[in-house]
Design brief:
This protein has a single domain (3-148), classed as Nuclear Transport Factor 2, Chain: A. It is built from five helices and six strands, in the order E-H-H-H-E-H-E-E-E-E-H. Helix content is 32%, strand content 39%. It has a six-stranded mixed sheet.
């Protein structure tokens, strides 16, 4: 099990992945950059378990499709860079990433601000038979709302 520190884009990591689990984990992030909601079918198992869903998110793959669509509709120029990744036993992969983009549409209840965004997050995914079956994720949501919220001050 090798840990890789990098700053490659998710697309670069998909192309250079040395295992199916690493490729699928990076492809998950690439979906947010491309807005490819249909790509969720190739990445997620239909009954994927999101251990950290948004309050009103649908379960399973529908919830993942909705999240991809929300990012696609709320932001342009989205780019995930993988800062660290490690493949663990039993198909688990840890990814620490950075997302940049511009808030150009309604996102998570905030109207378009035109503000740049720059947040980090960590995903822990389990890949079984080439699909993500479980995902734990944490994002800098407070920082995101400070960057896109009207009149919000940066800390």
């Amino acid at each position: 099990m090798t840990a890789i520190s990098t700053a490659n884009t998710s697309s670069e990591m998909v192309r250079s992945a040395t295992s199916t689990a690493l490729r699928v984990a990076a492809r998950n992030l690439e979906l947010y950059d491309t807005g490819d909601v249909a790509g969720a079918d190739e990445v997620f198992a239909p009954d994927v378990i999101d251990h950290n869903p948004a309050g009103d998110a649908a379960s399973g793959i529908e919830g993942m499709r909705a999240l991809i669509a929300a990012v696609r509709d709320g932001f342009t120029g989205t780019q995930h860079r993988i800062l660290f990744q490690q493949e663990l036993a039993d198909g688990w992969v840890v990814l620490h990433w950075r997302m940049t983009g511009t808030h150009t549409g309604d996102a998570f209840g905030f109207p378009a601000s035109g503000n740049p965004v720059d947040i980090k997050g960590t995903d822990i995914v389990r890949v079984v038979d080439g699909k993500i079956t479980e995902i734990y994720h944490v994002e800098e949501l407070l920082k995101l709302t400070q960057q896109i919220g009207t009149g919000a001050q940066s800390v």
